[in-house]
Design goal:
By secondary structure, the chain is α+β, with helices and mostly antiparallel strands. It contains 9 helices and 11 strands.
Length: about 325
C-alpha cells in the first residue's frame, strides 16, 4: 500500500475517513452525511445531521506539523472562553458522550494516532474567496476583539501554547541559514534575510517591556475567517501562541502583501481594529512582523519534505516581500 505521505490530498482524506467514522461513534450525533473539506494539513470533515445541525470534525495532522492532544485540549479551553464574547463568532467544541473534547483515533494505514475534535459549524463564505468585495474593517475589528478578550485570560493547569518570542516559536529548530542551499539563499538574498532576522529579533526583544503577553490566534488569514451578511466568524485556533497583538496583525497581513490594493486593505484593517482597541504599532512594526512570518514560512518549507518542491518559489517571493517591507519602513 502506498505510503501515507505520498498520497494526494484526496488520497489522504480517504485514508483518514475511517478514523473519522470510528471517532464519531463516541458522540451522540445522528450524522447522515460526512464530507471531506480539506486535507491540506489536518483532515477536516463536514458532518450533516438528521435534525439539520452541522458540525466540523478535525482529524489532526501527524508530525512534524501536527499538534498534540494536550495542545488541542488547550485550544478547546480557549474556545470555550471565547464563546462568551459577542463578536467574532467562534466554533464551540462539542464534547463526546463521556465529556471529552478530544478523542484519539487510529487506523492501520495511517502512521500516527491523531487527536480528533468536533466543533459547531460556522456559516458564511471564506474571506479568502471574497477579498475583492469585502472591506477589511470588520476583519480588523474581529482580531481586536480577540485580543481584548485575551486580556486577563487565566488558563487552567496543563494549558499548552508556544511563546512567540523568537522567529520560529515551535519545537523544531530554525534552520534557514544552516540548511537552505545556495540556490535558495544566494548571497544577496541571504544578506536580505539576515537583515530581516536582525530587525525581527530586535523588535521581539523589546515587546516584553511594553505589556504582558496574551494569547493570539497565530494564523488569522483569510482561509480561517468567514463572512456572512456582514457578520465575521473566526476558526482554526490550533496555531495559537502567547505573544503581542502586533505579531498577530503581521501574520494576518502577510498574506495580502502581493495585492495591488494592499495599502487600502491595511488602512481598512487598521480602521476596524481601532474601533475596538488602539493600533499596537509605534512605527513600521507590522512590517517587521510580516518579515517574521516570511522567515517562518521559509523555515517550514525546508523542514517538511512534501513542501520542498515549492521552496524555490517561497524563497524568491520571500526576498521580494522582505525588500518591500524594508522599503516601506524606510519611506
Amino acid at each position: 500500500m502506498k505510503d501515507f505521505y505520498e498520497l494526494t490530498d484526496i488520497g489522504r482524506a480517504r485514508r483518514l475517513r475511517p478514523i473519522a467514522e470510528t471517532v464519531l461513534n463516541e458522540y451522540d450525533l445522528e450524522v447522515v452525511r460526512m464530507r471531506s473539506m480539506s486535507d491540506a494539513t489536518n483532515g477536516v470533515f463536514r458532518l450533516d445531521c438528521a435534525n439539520g445541525d452541522r458540525f466540523a470534525m478535525r482529524v489532526g495532522a501527524g508530525p512534524p506539523i501536527g499538534h498534540s492532544a494536550d495542545e488541542m485540549r488547550s485550544e478547546m479551553e480557549w474556545l470555550d472562553a471565547l464563546c462568551t464574547i459577542e463578536t467574532p463568532a467562534v466554533p464551540r467544541p462539542v464534547p463526546s458522550r463521556t465529556g471529552e473534547v478530544v478523542v484519539m483515533g487510529s487506523a492501520p494505514n495511517v502512521p500516527y494516532d491523531p487527536p480528533c475534535a468536533i466543533f459547531t459549524w460556522l456559516d458564511g463564505s471564506l474571506l479568502a474567496d471574497r477579498l475583492d468585495e469585502v472591506s477589511f474593517d470588520k476583519y480588523g475589528a474581529a482580531m481586536a476583539n480577540l485580543h481584548r478578550a485575551a486580556i486577563g485570560f487565566e488558563p487552567r493547569s496543563g494549558f499548552v501554547a508556544p511563546k512567540y518570542t523568537t522567529v520560529y516559536p515551535y519545537e523544531s529548530p530554525f534552520i534557514v541559514f544552516s540548511e537552505a542551499d545556495g540556490d535558495l539563499l544566494p548571497p544577496t538574498r541571504r544578506s536580505l534575510f539576515e537583515k530581516g532576522l536582525g530587525l525581527v529579533q530586535e523588535l521581539f526583544g523589546s515587546l516584553p517591556s511594553r505589556e504582558p503577553m496574551r494569547l493570539l490566534h497565530g494564523d488569522l488569514h483569510g482561509w480561517n475567517v468567514k463572512t456572512d451578511h456582514g457578520r465575521v466568524s473566526v476558526f482554526d485556533f490550533e496555531d495559537m501562541v502567547w505573544g503581542w497583538p502586533v505579531q498577530d496583525i503581521g501574520v494576518a497581513l502577510y498574506y495580502y502583501w502581493q495585492r495591488d490594493d494592499f495599502d487600502q486593505k491595511l488602512h481598512e484593517f487598521r480602521s476596524g481594529y481601532q474601533t475596538v482597541s488602539p493600533w499596537p504599532d509605534s512605527g513600521g512594526e507590522v512590517f517587521t512582523c510580516i518579515i517574521a512570518r516570511t522567515l517562518l514560512m521559509a523555515n517550514d518549507v525546508i523542514s517538511q519534505p512534501e513542501w520542498l518542491e515549492v521552496a524555490s518559489e517561497v524563497y524568491e517571493r520571500g526576498e521580494r516581500r522582505i525588500r518591500d517591507m524594508l522599503d516601506r519602513m524606510n519611506s
